[in-house]
Amino acid sequence: MTHLYEFARPALTVDIVVFGLDEEDLQVMLIQRDLAPFEGGWALPGGFVRVDETLDDAARRELVEETGLKDIYLEQLYTFGAVERDPRERVVTVAYYALVNLEGHHVQASTDARNAAWFPVSDLPELAFDHQAILDAAHERLRGKVRYQPIGFELLPERFTLRQLQHMYEVILDRELDKRNFRKKVLAMEIVKETKEIEKDVAHRAARLYRFDKRTYDRLTKQGFNFEI
Amino acid sequence: MTHLYEFARPALTVDIVVFGLDEEDLQVMLIQRDLAPFEGGWALPGGFVRVDETLDDAARRELVEETGLKDIYLEQLYTFGAVERDPRERVVTVAYYALVNLEGHHVQASTDARNAAWFPVSDLPELAFDHQAILDAAHERLRGKVRYQPIGFELLPERFTLRQLQHMYEVILDRELDKRNFRKKVLAMEIVKETKEIEKDVAHRAARLYRFDKRTYDRLTKQGFNFEI
DNA sequence: CCAAAAGTGTTTGTCCTACACCCATGT
DNA sequence: ACATGGGTGTAGGACAAACACTTTTGG
Known about the structure:
Chains A, B: Residues 11-149 form the Nudix hydrolase domain. Chains A, B: GO terms for molecular function: hydrolase activity; nucleotidyltransferase activity. Chains A, B: This is Bifunctional NMN adenylyltransferase/Nudix hydrolase. 2 copies of one chain form a homodimer. In chain A, the strands form 2 sheets. In chain A, strands 1, 2, 3, 4, 5, 6 and 7 form a 7-stranded mixed β-sheet that branches. In chain A, strands 8-9 form a two-stranded antiparallel sheet. Chain A has 5 helices and 9 strands, in the order E-E-E-E-H-E-E-E-H-H-H-E-E-H. Chain A has 2 domains: 11-145, Nucleoside Triphosphate Pyrophosphohydrolase, CATH 3.90.79; 159-222, Arc Repressor Mutant, subunit A, CATH 1.10.10. The first copy, chain A, is of the alpha+beta class. Chain A binds a DNA duplex (27 and 27 nucleotides) through residues 161-163, 178-181, 183-185, 199, 202-208.
């Protein structure tokens, strides 16, 4: 292959911050490294970008390879290019964040070769490279974006109660919301639709289940509607 | 140098969308290419990232080299990684956008070797590579961000009239604003301060000049204040 | 004195906030 | 029957929108 310039090239990787939500906390998926540097330490899933795949493809491929997760919400976050961020050589990384619904299978979601696990964002181990900074950036982006884009639904099961929805916002925004006002606001926007189903196996009155109506959201958005919590 | 992996590496560049504002329009700085491909065509300023500089450094260096602009507002936008975006070989580019105050010297800001010029965003020539898509992304980011971060001031001179400020928002947001409500809102936030100076050389009543008070903005922000237009 | 833009107040409606009680269900 | 969370209404205040005239200055 001919090169366009004579200089040494930075290597290019992708790293992904995968967020999940359980009844308590916002969680992040980490991988235990099996190679130096930081051998045995925890890091974000990620890896090198191949010359024949897009950045999004690379992120999706690494996610499947390292965590088994596929078909989840994924969005590019920021590209980190500090010169010494990898002690071996110059590596620029395109960071992504992903949102996934944990449902039941929280706490430990390990896969094939490597050890993968969920950690609460509020209580993380020390991370390799500059991955803590990447995670902080992802967390901040999530906090900012969740308020004016309906991405929070990606963290919930397809059918959810209004309390689950409220809890999701409370965890991400890190403040309490008024139950009555929250319900009024959500139901006033017509994008969360009631279903006929109700919660199961709870030791009290069962809550109605709702779903996010993407079709209505898209229609309203085209008409100038702006989602906001 | 030892390489971490055997695969071919994508090349890495930065490209910068420089916005300026005059009395009429939002403008973008373009460079006329002197090499194939797209020889003679117009493109965003940019170039290869060196192995010993950060991405921000690369963007600033290219800006100085190709347009002469320095010490201006610069922010990373998005990283574009389509496989065929450069016909020669795989090139991933980290896009930035920059904001600059045109003051008097609009229209033609050419430099040393290359030909650089301002074009109104609403009437652009055909651009090389995927630069139109990059520009569109930058434009959309600017539209979104200008409403809740005080970055619009970067497009104005240090002392400006409230009409200039309003005009800046009208051009970027592409809608008219009510003069009285706009003034009330801006002056109610205490971050735009009156100066003792007034406009000069106008054939009618001269307007008072104002300045953005970053110190007050930072203080209020720390107290939970959220800028919004 | 005329043209051109600067500068200013009030009313109306909407939306956000704060707040407390009854309801349905499982044990 | 009781414990647990589900579900609802209202009043007050703050803010956004709509709207027109007077003032200042230069030519």
